[in-house]
Design a protein that fits this description.
The structure holds 2 protein chains of 2 kinds. Chain A is mainly alpha-helical. Chain A has helices at residues 2-23, 38-46, 49-56, 60-75, 80-86. The termini of chain A are far apart. By secondary structure, chain B is mostly helical. Classes of the chains: A mainly alpha, B mainly alpha.
């Protein structure tokens, strides 16, 4: 009885597999990309999102602080050694 | 012959150290195989192109983790399969495998011309409704008739697990089709 159930299950799977193969023919043996993908690969490597993500990960107020310090250093260059002394 | 093998080994070792020339050589040598593998899963040439780039991008990022002793192609195939899996998870099931995709891919005509377009469409859409893990197993092992061992290696699971996924996929497909009044 148990064997019969297993056989029916296997038969059911097999008939479904056959229907799937009949409905969706397999691809030819060696599908080829329509063109060389290297230029697209190079472009992708150049626009590495990791780098932009890292830059974006720095909060805006840190950038504002850096900009403020730069403006301060340009406006009062004599104060830079004193600032460095206290850092 | 020995020189060629040595050159390949040298190239793989260089790739591990992040050498861009070695990466380009590997890309040119394997892009066709990776594209073909992905196309078998997604069945859409445009998506297969994008995912080939994504696969090699991941390969490029993971170069330090590559073990030259284990071979490049199986490693690339596994990364490609996971890139395709991620893409499938991001799609809505109905759009991920519309039958237009199948029409767009050059393939031999169906072995059974008696199979109506309606049944074919129902089968394709039912396959598209499967969870991505089951769909990949069914597409590669049943439709493409790839060896279980190869599918297992690409999915990073055992052969027995692939057989189980295929069995579960067939059971779900059968139930789905029966609900639409189609008896496989």
């Amino acid at each position: 009885m148990n064997n019969q159930g297993t056989a029916n299950r296997e038969q059911g799977t097999e008939s479904m597999e056959n229907l799937l193969r009949r409905a969706i023919p397999r691809l030819e043996d060696d599908p080829v990309p329509p063109h060389d993908l290297w230029p697209a690969m190079q472009a992708r490597l150049k626009s590495d999102p990791q780098l932009t993500t890292r830059l974006r990960a720095v909060p805006w107020f840190d950038w504002a602080l850096v900009a403020g310090l730069a403006v301060f250093a340009i406006a009062f260059p004599a104060a830079v050694p004193m600032l460095l002394y206290y850092l | 012959m020995g020189t060629m093998e040595e050159q390949t080994r040298e190239e793989l070792e260089q790739f591990c150290f992040g050498n861009e020339t070695a990466f380009e050589a590997l890309f040119r040598r394997h892009q066709r195989a990776v594209y073909g593998w992905i196309l078998r899963i997604v069945r859409d040439p445009g998506t297969a192109e994008d995912l080939t780039i994504e696969t090699f991008f991941r390969i490029h990022r993971a170069h330090a983790r590559f073990d030259p002793a284990r071979g490049f192609e199986p490693w690339a195939r596994r990364i490609a399969t996971h890139a395709a899996l991620d893409w499938m998870r991001a799609q809505r099931p109905e759009t991920a495998m519309a039958d237009e995709f199948f029409a767009a891919v050059p393939s031999p005509p169906a072995s059974d011309p008696a199979l109506t377009a309606e049944i074919r469409r129902a089968v394709v859409l039912a396959l598209g409704r499967l969870p991505p893990k089951l769909r990949i197993a069914a597409s590669l092992a049943v439709v493409e008739e790839r060896p279980y061992k190869e599918v297992a290696s690409a999915l990073g699971i055992t052969k027995a697990a692939v057989k189980l996924r295929v069995f579960r996929a067939m059971r779900r497909l059968r139930t789905d089709l029966e609900q639409q009044g189609i008896r496989p």
